[in-house]
Write a structure and sequence with these properties.
With 544 residues, the protein is mainly α. It has a two-stranded antiparallel sheet with strand order 1-2. Helix 1 runs antiparallel to helix 15 and helix 10 packs parallel to helix 12.
């Protein structure tokens, strides 16, 4: 249906008190259908999922190599990685999320404006053609003689109808011109330039912060001054921090590519970097006898390789230097970035706190927790590919005001995320049960891992749904809600962590993490199922 030029989905017959609570089940039978929408999702999702999983997989391999050194070193690296990841998420996650939406919106609007200008030119040409039809043949011949054969050719094309006005709706324009801009020349995307500058500055600040505050941060995480974990943790965190500029700049660049719906380029760069990391790990750790320092050095070198590849590819498509400094969108980025900052802190603090509490249980439980956590996050991040696809498609659809596609894309990616989560539960449960020996040979560590397997596996559907909900909300540019809704969720989760940790130790921590992810998933779908915020159009169409 179209009202005021805006496409709306058909009225829903399944509503509760005027709210579209059953919208999540809309067209559920089509979840595996490879129609145009399904193919678009897969085209974005599959490379994005592989790229997102590649770095945690490399961290898993790091964990496997370091586990061969000993449980103390493994626990130390686990604490250091938790600190580094927390700092990285706080500084870059808001930037990447905003960049993807802003670039997708700006690129789509640019394509629509470009095509609209072409349509106006065609209309003017058509009007002039009508005037020429009124001229006598003698007048046409005289005019052609004056203006030359080139003009005569253009006139003939117009009379034949080959250049008739064929203006299309915004959604058709955007899809048709998706690849033509790159062929014609470099794109001018101010939000891309802004994102890269912010990523570089934040990376430098993070490196300084982590290097100067490494010992203090490790103490906050429960590594005491006389702990055997302190020295290897301090070495690993300090060296790993040198890669912060590369990590943040590469993630900002990936956000730009996602906005273009290009997830293949980040995949190629990430795989190249992680393969380098895997090759260098045994050389630096064992051959050169650098231990945990060697693992950190290998990881840092791989991150700089990734960012060099990404920037080289991006410079082929985009003018990274804007014509004027005023074209940069620092105000827009900072406004939305600070809103998301509170959410990111709330989201990641729960995981960081759980690692800190596990460290207080001792080096053996911490080593087991680190392995379980790495598997938990790596497998769950496979669903982040769907989140990236949903965000990019929804950002473009909202820019085009194509609310029919908004509804179809949002429900499809959420349904696919749940199915993916069920599959991951089986694979992770069986894989970790039989393959935990890859990460450690310590019998005590393996016993504690077996206790955590049911939690790691059973939470996969919940995790998958929660992560994809983030992408859906970001695609709708609903940044304020995603920030504010996560604060009470984190508050309840932190309280449950402390209470269950004291009463049940290792098991209590995993029960609390399960509660945290369940609350996060509920908050993620709330706006959509209640038809509020950017989803008000669902409520208006559902009401009788």
């Amino acid at each position: 249906m179209a009202e005021n030029g805006i496409m709306h989905p058909p009225e829903s017959k399944s509503s509760l008190w005027g709210m579209p609570v059953f919208v999540l089940f809309k067209d559920a039978r089509l979840v595996f259908k490879m129609d145009s929408l399904g193919l678009e999702i897969i085209r974005i999702d599959f490379p994005a999922a592989l790229a997102l999983a590649a770095d945690p997989i490399a961290s898993l391999i790091d964990t496997a190599f370091i586990g061969r050194i000993g449980p103390v070193e493994l626990a130390a690296v686990g604490v250091s990685i938790a600190i580094f990841n927390q700092a990285s998420r706080v500084t870059i996650f808001p930037l990447v999320s905003i960049t993807t939406s802003f670039v997708a919106e700006e690129d789509t609007n640019g394509k629509i404006s470009h095509e609209a200008a072409k349509c106006e030119d065609l209309e003017r040409s058509g009007h002039k053609n009508n005037e020429m039809k009124e001229l006598t043949p003698e007048d046409v011949i005289a005019e052609n003689l004056e203006k030359g054969a080139a003009r005569n050719t253009d006139t003939k094309e117009l009379v034949d109808g080959s250049n008739t006005n064929t203006c299309k709706p915004p959604s058709a324009i955007a899809s048709k011109t998706e690849n033509t801009e790159v062929k014609k020349g470099k794109r001018h995307i101010p939000s891309a330039s802004t994102a890269l500058l912010l990523g570089l500055m934040l990376g430098l600040l993070q490196a300084v912060f982590l290097i100067l505050g490494a010992k203090l941060l490790l103490g906050v995480m429960g590594v005491k001054p006389k702990s055997p974990m302190l020295n290897p943790a301090l070495k690993y965190l300090t060296l790993r921090s040198l890669g912060s500029p590369a990590v943040l700049l590469s993630l900002a660049t990936q956000g730009v590519f996602r906005g273009f719906k290009d997830t293949k380029t980040p995949l190629y760069a990430t795989v190249a970097g992680d393969l380098t990391n895997i090759i260098l790990d045994p050389i630096f750790i064992f051959a050169l006898r650098l231990g945990v320092s060697g693992a950190a050095i290998a990881h840092v070198l791989s991150q700089y390789l990734i960012v060099l590849i990404l920037l080289w590819q991006l410079m082929k498509q985009v003018n990274l230097l804007p014509p004027h400094i005023k074209d940069l969108q620092f105000g827009r980025f900072l406004k939305n970035g600070f809103v998301l900052l509170a959410r990111v802190i709330a989201v990641t603090f729960c995981v960081t706190l759980s690692a800190s509490l596990a460290a207080r249980l001792g080096s053996t439980p911490m080593a087991a927790f680190q392995i379980c956590l790495q598997v938990w996050m790596t497998s769950s991040l496979l669903s982040d590919g769907l989140a990236v696809a949903g965000q990019a498609i929804l950002a473009c659809a909202f820019a085009e005001k194509d609310y029919k596609k908004v509804t179809a894309a949002a429900t499809r990616v959420l349904q696919m995320s749940f199915v993916l989560g069920v599959g991951l539960a089986v694979v992770v449960g069986v894989g970790l049960y039989f393959g935990s020996g890859i990460f450690s040979k310590d019998a005590s560590v393996l016993h504690i891992i077996s206790i955590g397997i049911p939690f790691v596996a059973a939470t996969q559907p919940i995790n998958s749904l929660a992560f994809v909900c983030d992408g859906v909300n970001y695609g709708a540019s609903d940044f304020s809600y995603t920030a504010y809704s996560m604060v009470p969720v984190a508050g309840a989760s932190i309280a449950s962590l402390f209470l269950l940790y004291k009463s049940n130790g290792f098991i209590g921590i995993w029960v609390a993490l399960t509660i945290y992810m369940a609350l996060r998933a509920i908050a993620g779908v709330w706006r959509m199922v209640t038809g509020t915020g950017p989803w008000r159009f669902l409520r208006s169409r559902s009401m009788p």
